Q: What sequence folds into this?
């Protein structure tokens, strides 16, 4: 804060007497300081190299020049409070955004916006597949060539709002999006295929609300519809004959509708209750006509898919004593899948399904309560309890282990310090215990017992311990330090195989230093380490005889001779470091620079538990990224200036994901996929800006 | 101020001239005019753009649109602040306003937030008091800049930066090879989360994880003839939307991801390896590379195919 000496206003008034023209200048300055500012920026940028990572989403994926154009118009009629806004970002690129808004503040408003999101696949495909963006794809149809798969979303939004007076308001937003392009897909037996995307989605969000001093209410409708121009892809081999697993279905049209009523009431300034009631319906009724030729007789014309959803939520927060805060929340969600059941495929006697479709219903009840107490020296201690019960349904014949209920109880303890000038922070401990109902016995279609070994990740018993430490420290006036440390440990159990253990650690340090009013610097580094251990059983048959495994492992594997238990030990280590500098070396020059380096390493270790199993070594997958950004703005006049941007982006990948992989195509040569191990891009941009 | 000093205005002759000017401008001072907000003259006689936290730019914002009768005065947010305005003679330092919002403010955070909620409790902020942010002492001004035209957290290019001030682990994740276009400002935190609190989990925009994902990935919603149970239950069982090192934001890459749930009968328990073969034989490339299990199980999110074939049931067609 400026020292309270002679105030500028008084000084200005004095200057008015002494130097009237100088006061007029201040008047102009005040006008500039208090009138909404608009900016137009235009120039050109250049990318020196084709690339698929740097330009994945921003439209700068090809070597060449690009127009750099942005507008940010903000005009206000002060007499009526009417705003006119026009914003355009990346207008010369495929990632452009446009928005026009007209509003009389406190009365009415409307907007229209447009946005494009490109997405370039990071892979280059070399293939003879023809018709890749169509619903009939044929291997060997064209000479092998490099293909870049990409999609683009084009969105148009419209909306309006109105204040009706007395606290009532209403609004509606409509969004239409078209997504077109191609995406890497696959077909049974290792054949290459592409998903042709020609989708349209529409969303409507309409609401009427009331805002009073104590009571707030919102009644809303949300509707969303998805339409796919295509239903199936037919895949042909080089001879033009349909391949074995074809046609392949594309996502069907579907829609959802939801009505909701939300509210809050403040009984006192420190006691408030909230609620939400919502009921929705999801429908999927696309005709089966395209694939009906190979269908069983007697199935309906369409799935008749219908899911009813219900949400009930109520919460209360209160501060009954100045130092005591209480919060409680209860949420009930029900997803009732009312889709009619038919036999769609004819199963074999020992199949792990009975041919019927399998509607999925879920019910979830979540309750939590929390109490906070203010201690001396700015400390607050918080204790919390959370209980979540989930129910699911399943089909009579299954291939995956199942339990219909899981219950998870979490205990939280949080000690926090705030409002200190030097050190604030928190330590949070969370202990969660998840268990559930008895496991179902998987049976085959003929009633015989199937495989019952795995506890699936989301159904298994799990004990989870988490700790999180945050610290904001200001050791000296110009320096601030932020530390974050997190640890989590998961222990899984339930059945014999599946996830066994999970660990996660995360550390970060951020430093910010203010050298002077003109120069500031930031630096940060972080490290994450995530591990998972899980066991499986090699080529197991579903029934005994079992091969004994070391008893200290505690695993059994009902398997045929020669096979046994193995374990995957998966790990991901992420490291990042960055440095940023901002400065105003002169009154007309602003500089910003940032350099960052990230490295992600995946480890995939496979270990034999039953002696004698051959467990191939899987190399690490390593991704590194280095990025330097420099941004300089030079003011040519009070209102205009030039901006220079420079970006250096280097992406390196050492991954076995596609190396040596050749699809089992009938085209010659067969399809391969590759990515450049090193992608290096320089981008330079120069723009002129004008502010008014 | 320093510029004025540099200009030599405090040299004695110049000061005398200014004082003469002040004398003649006495009437103007007596009738100080508001510069920005209603009744702000008492504040702006001291506070202006030379402040460390400039105040006049609030005029460029919705708060400074005087034609809207709902807009606040300085005291609406900061309190009447008599002691601040009229510094007691024995006070060594000028007392702070009744409510201040800086990082080192001693005003309790709930009280700071109440200043905002007095007008902004409706709409998307109905659930604020129940939110994790409210429960963890997050102030509105931790994220929002009220006195500037450019409130960074409401700008797609800068919003994530504001969130990463606390969510450091997410900052690391959004830079991983498989990610949403957050860096490019094409997807922002507020596209999925309402940081002001919601009735659902994780302060998500819609009532559940899946409903939030469907706003952009509606093709996954179904229902399908063949549904994949975890897909219908929670997208986050398999995906981490903030970014991963595996294609398609998968938490773990196949086949190990699939082996976390699927019984190891037939080929499902096979080991990854690089022996020749594009099928599902143990230790072959087909188990391991390219899309791994998804090479064959193409429609893993569900299929509406009614072809009478087991491939339809196992999402292969």
A:
């Amino acid at each position: 804060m400026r020292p309270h000496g002679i105030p500028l206003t008084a000084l200005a008034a004095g200057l008015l007497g002494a130097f009237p023209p100088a006061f007029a200048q201040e008047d102009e300055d005040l006008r500039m300081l208090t009138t909404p500012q608009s900016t137009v920026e235009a120039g050109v940028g250049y990318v020196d190299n084709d690339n698929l990572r740097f330009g994945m989403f921003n439209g700068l994926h090809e070597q060449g020049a690009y127009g750099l154009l942005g507008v940010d118009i903000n005009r206000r009629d002060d007499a009526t409070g009417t705003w006119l806004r026009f914003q355009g970002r990346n207008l010369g690129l495929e990632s452009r955004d446009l928005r026009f808004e007209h509003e009389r503040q406190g009365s009415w408003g409307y907007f229209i916006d447009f946005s494009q999101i490109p997405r370039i696949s990071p892979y280059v495909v070399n293939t003879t597949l023809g018709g890749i963006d169509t619903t009939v794809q044929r291997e060997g149809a064209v000479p092998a060539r490099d293909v870049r798969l990409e999609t683009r979303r084009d969105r148009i939004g419209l909306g309006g709002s109105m204040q009706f007076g007395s606290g009532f308001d209403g609004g509606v937003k409509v969004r239409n999006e078209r997504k077109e392009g191609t995406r890497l897909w696959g077909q049974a037996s290792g054949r290459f295929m592409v998903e042709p995307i020609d989708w349209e989605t529409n969303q409507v969000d309409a609401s009427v609300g009331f805002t009073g001093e104590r009571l707030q209410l919102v009644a809303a409708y949300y509707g969303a519809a998805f339409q796919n121009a295509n239903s199936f892809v037919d895949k042909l081999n080089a001879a033009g004959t349909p391949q074995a697993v074809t046609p392949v279905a594309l996502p069907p049209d579907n829609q959802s509708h939801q009505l909701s009523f939300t509210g809050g009431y403040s009984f006192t300034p420190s006691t408030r209750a909230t609620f939400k009631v919502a009921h929705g319906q999801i429908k999927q009724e696309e005709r089966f006509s395209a694939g009906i030729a190979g269908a069983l007789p007697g199935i309906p014309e369409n799935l008749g898919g219908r899911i009813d959803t219900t949400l009930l939520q109520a919460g209360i927060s209160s501060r009954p004593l100045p130092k005591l805060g209480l919060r409680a929340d209860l949420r009930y969600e029900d997803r009732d899948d009312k889709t009619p059941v038919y036999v769609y495929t004819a199963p074999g006697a020992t199949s792990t399904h009975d041919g019927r479709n399998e509607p999925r219903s879920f019910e979830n009840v979540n309750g939590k309560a929390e109490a906070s107490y203010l201690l001396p020296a700015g400390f607050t201690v918080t204790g919390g309890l959370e209980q979540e019960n989930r129910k699911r349904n399943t089909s009579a014949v299954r291939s995956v282990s199942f339990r219909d209920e899981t219950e998870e109880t979490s205990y939280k303890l949080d000690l926090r310090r705030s409002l200190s000038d030097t050190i604030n922070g928190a330590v949070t401990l969370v202990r969660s215990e998840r268990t559930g109902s008895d496991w179902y016995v998987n049976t085959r279609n003929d009633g015989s017992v199937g495989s019952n070994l795995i506890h699936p990740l989301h159904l298994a018993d799990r004990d989870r311990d988490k700790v999180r430490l945050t610290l904001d420290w200001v050791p000296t006036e110009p320096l601030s330090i932020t530390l974050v440390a997190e640890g989590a440990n998961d222990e899984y159990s339930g059945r014999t195989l599946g996830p066994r253990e999970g660990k996660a650690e995360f550390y970060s340090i951020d430093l910010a230093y203010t050298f002077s009013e003109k120069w500031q610097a930031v630096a940060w580094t972080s490290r994450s380490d995530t591990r998972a251990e899980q066991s499986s059983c090699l080529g197991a048959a579903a029934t005994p005889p079992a091969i004994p495994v070391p008893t200290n492992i505690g695993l059994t594997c009902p398997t045929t001779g020669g096979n046994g238990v193995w374990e995957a030990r998966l790990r991901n280590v992420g490291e990042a470091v960055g440095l940023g500098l901002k400065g105003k070396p002169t009154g007309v020059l602003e500089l910003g620079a940032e350099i960052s380096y990230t490295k992600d390493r995946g480890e995939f270790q496979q270990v034999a538990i039953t002696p004698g199993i051959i467990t191939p070594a899987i190399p690490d997958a390593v991704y590194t990224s280095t990025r330097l950004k420099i941004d300089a703005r030079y003011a040519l006049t009070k209102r205009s200036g030039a901006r220079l941007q420079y970006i250096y982006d280097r992406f390196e990948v050492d991954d076995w994901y596609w190396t040596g992989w050749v699809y089992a195509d009938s085209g010659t040569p067969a399809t391969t996929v590759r990515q450049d191990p090193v992608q290096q891009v320089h981008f330079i941009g120069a723009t002129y800006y004008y502010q008014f | 101020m320093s510029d004025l000093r540099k200009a030599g205005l405090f040299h004695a002759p110049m000061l005398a001239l200014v004082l003469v000017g002040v004398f003649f401008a006495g009437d103007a001072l007596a009738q100080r005019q508001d510069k920005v907000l209603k009744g702000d003259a008492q504040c702006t006689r001291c506070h202006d753009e030379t402040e460390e936290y400039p105040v006049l730019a609030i005029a460029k914002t919705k708060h400074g649109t005087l034609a809207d009768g709902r807009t606040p005065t300085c005291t609406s947010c900061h309190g009447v602040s008599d002691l601040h305005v009229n510094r007691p003679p024995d006070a060594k330092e000028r007392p702070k306003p009744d409510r201040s919002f800086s990082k080192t403010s001693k005003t309790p955070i709930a009280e700071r937030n109440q200043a905002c909620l007095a007008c902004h409790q409706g709409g998307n902020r109905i659930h604020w008091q129940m939110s994790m942010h409210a429960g963890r002492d997050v102030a509105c001004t931790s994220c929002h800049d009220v006195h500037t035209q450019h409130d960074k957290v409401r700008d797609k290019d800068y919003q994530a930066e504001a969130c990463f001030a606390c969510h450091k682990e997410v900052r690391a994740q959004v830079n991983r090879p498989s990610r949403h276009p957050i860096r490019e400002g094409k997807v922002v935190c507020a596209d999925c989360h309402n940081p002001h609190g919601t009735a659902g989990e994780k302060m998500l925009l819609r009532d559940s994880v899946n409903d939030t994902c469907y706003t952009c990935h509606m093709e996954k919603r179904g229902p399908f003839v063949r549904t994949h149970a975890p897909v219908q239950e929670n997208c986050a069982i398999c995906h981490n939307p903030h970014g991963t090192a595996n294609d398609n934001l998968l938490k773990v890459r196949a086949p190990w991801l699939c082996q976390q749930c699927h019984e190891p009968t037939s080929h499902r328990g096979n080991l990854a390896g690089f022996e020749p073969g594009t099928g599902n034989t143990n230790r072959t490339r087909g188990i391991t590379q390219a899309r791994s299990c998804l090479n064959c199980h193409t429609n893993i999110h569900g299929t509406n195919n009614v072809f009478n074939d087991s491939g339809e049931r196992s999402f292969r067609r």
Summary: Confidence is low (pLDDT under 50) at residues 1-19, 542-554 of chain A. Chain A touches chain B through 204 residues (CB under 8 Å). Chain A is about 5% helix and 60% strand. The longest helix of chain A spans residues 20-34.
